[in-house]
Amino acid sequence: MNPRPQATKNGGLQQSQQPLFPSPLEPIYVAIDFERTGFIINNFGPRSDTQVGISILDTRDLNLLSWKKALSLATYNFVTGSDLYCAESAEKCLWGTSEKISPRSMLKTVRKYARRDRNIVLVGHGFGGDLAVLSSLGFDFQASVIGILDTAN
After folding, report:
1. Is 100:80 a contact under the CB 8 Å cutoff?
2. Could you tell me the sign of the dihedral formed by the alpha carbons of 39, 42, 46, 48, in that order?
3. What percent of the chain has pLDDT over 90?
4. DSSP the chain
5. pLDDT-based confidence at 118, cuts 50/70/90?
6. Structure pTM?
């Protein structure tokens, strides 16, 4: 018996007939980028003009992809603070729309998209500040985070 997955040729590309991640707990890659991290770490203080961008790649979707279908990422941008800051941030958001949230709801919002019922790999670039923000917000890294990927390293 051949233990290797069977593959078929489609336009020069090989497409596996077996899932890439056969486990029922396939990881979700959650990229997080906070802006103005000092305001968040210092409990927002007198200024609450901040934002968090979140992008999600669910590896279960990779198992469903055909070579003809484009990969899709779910992207979100959440902004706190003045109406002017929110409007300026919305103009700069290239991937989807920006949603205004309250500073107190930032952790709840992150938790909503970093689902705790699945294994999570956190992704960031120069991620130290973002991890410090998550920690200051009370994010529980032990619950389901199986890895942290810093693309700057």
Report:
1. yes
2. positive
3. 42
4. ---SPPEEEETTEEEESS-SS-STT--EEEEEEEESHHHHHTTTTT---EEEEEEEEEHHHHHH--TTSPP--EEEEEEES-HHHHHHHHHH--SS-EEE--GGGHHHHHHHHS-TTS-EEEEESSTHHHHHHHHHHT--TTTTEEEEEETT-
5. confident
6. 0.77
Whether the pLDDT of residue 8 is over 50: the answer is no
Q: What is the arithmetic mean of pLDDT over 124-136? A: 93
> What is the rounded radius of gyration, in angstroms, for the C-alpha atoms of the chain?
19
